[in-house]
Amino acid sequence: MSDTPSLEADLRSLERFRDWLQSLVAAQQPLDEWAMSVEELRERWLPKLRERPATTSSRLYF
Hints:
By secondary structure, the chain is mainly alpha-helical. The protein has one domain (4-51). Helices cover 63% and strands 0% of the residues. The chain has helices at residues 4-28, 38-51.
């Protein structure tokens, strides 16, 4: 009995998951932000976060 078809299916499934995860990460954070320091990110995002209404029920997680 050969496990090759099962192994190949598992591998394709993992590759699809990896691709999906990469697209999710790319959609959440622009690529130029990956090279920014923590201070640069703070300067970029803190003013935007302060502009958000305080009454929103959603939370922002980092």
